[in-house]
Amino acid sequence: MRVLSGIQPTGPFHWGNYFGAIQQYIELQDVADEAYYFIANLHALTTVRDKDLLKQYTLNGAIDLLALGLNPEKAVLFIQSDVPEVSELCWLLMTGTPMGLLERCVSYKDKLAKGLKADAGLFAYPVLQAADILAYDADIVPVGEDQLQHIEVCRDIAGSFNHHFGETFVMPKGKVLDQSARVPGTDGEKMSKSYGNTLAVFDDAKKQRKQIMRIQTDSRPMDEAKEPDGDVLYDLYKLVATEDEVAAMAATYRAGGFGYGEIKKALAEASERYWAEVRERREEYAAKPEVVREILAAGAEKARAKASVVLKRAQDACGVIGY
Ligand code: AQP
User: How many A from CA of 5 to the centre of ligand 1?
Assistant: First the structure.
């Protein structure tokens, strides 16, 4: 089994990124035959238009993944733009991709609805994502629920290329975790950087506590019993508290008579404990950026070796080499 996934360096990673995607990266690196994980800086260019900031987020993204447990001995970690084969493959795929397929993509439509200016890069984002996946013959792509549609688009693109030019690409499958496929943000919507509702993984405990205290709750009377599932505070608590604590919290909800302030306090405490170790580990990596750059260079070399074989296969299939 070959696993691949990417994450955009558009800002500090949040709980949605970790529990939806990164946690799967770490688990799968132990069982996959090959695992490829990359920082998607070319994708990030569709939103981050500041050179220094993009570089900073890119290196920070790699540091974050390492601190969270990505092991370069088990997985190939690299930066998207260090594998130019993928951009070449993207063009081959672009030529056969119907406009309608991209126009139906929810994340594109959402961004338009939020007033983001649409450029060709944002529109064609799923094609570059398809190239990212197909270039490594990936079977499994661990993601959050919001990315499943893009993986379907990738399958459509690969299927139509295979149909037209003969079997070239491996068909990938998306993989989501049932319990954290869609982590809610501080307003109850999907946690997302562009909604400004995130809890960042690496914020210090004090800042995080402040953000947790600001989480929006409903205004029902405090002595009323409540089903815990679907409540933002409880759903977030489930991610960072122990099994016993979660069971006790569920009982508290069902008994009623609690205050949201107490629950927020419990959530802040569980969060502080949950992230303490990785926050320390992050400081160690952040102090040696040259080591991280070496890991990325070695990763890029391995990734290019794989992607160049697949690119050649695709070029050969559609007749742009060997004339
Ligand atoms: N709230 C979430 N719940 C579960 N999974 C999530 N992911 C993102 N938000 C949630 C997953 O994280 C991985 C990286 O996604 P990305 O590269 O699209 O990162 P992002 O840009 O940080 O995601 P955002 O915050 O949601 O960004 P915008 O606001 O730009 O759309 C993916 O596997 C994603 O599913």
Answer: 12
Q: Determine the pLDDT at residue 259.
A: 86
pLDDT of residue 258: 80
Tens of pLDDT, residue by residue over 33-47, are: 999 999 999 999 999
What atom in ligand 1 is closest to the CA of residue 194? 29
pTM of the model: 0.95
Fold of 2-182+289-318: Rossmann fold (3.40.50)
Please state which CATH number belongs to domain 203-283. Answer: 1.10.240.10
The rounded Å distance from CA 144 to ligand 1 centre is 7
- Mark the ranges of the chain whose per-residue pLDDT is less than 70: 219, 221-222
Which atom of ligand 1 is closest in space to residue 11's alpha carbon? Answer: 22
- Structure confidence at residue 222 (pLDDT): 66
Question: What does each C-alpha distance from 224 to 142, 228, 248, 260, 266 come to in angstroms?
Answer: 39, 12, 17, 12, 19
What are the boundaries of each domain within the chain?
2-182+289-318, 203-283
Q: Which residue is closest in CA terms to ligand 1's atom 24?
A: 192
Question: pLDDT at position 246, please?
Answer: 97
Catalytic position from the list 74, 190, 265, 302: 190
Catalytic site residue 226?
no
**Which ipTM value was assigned to this complex?**
0.95
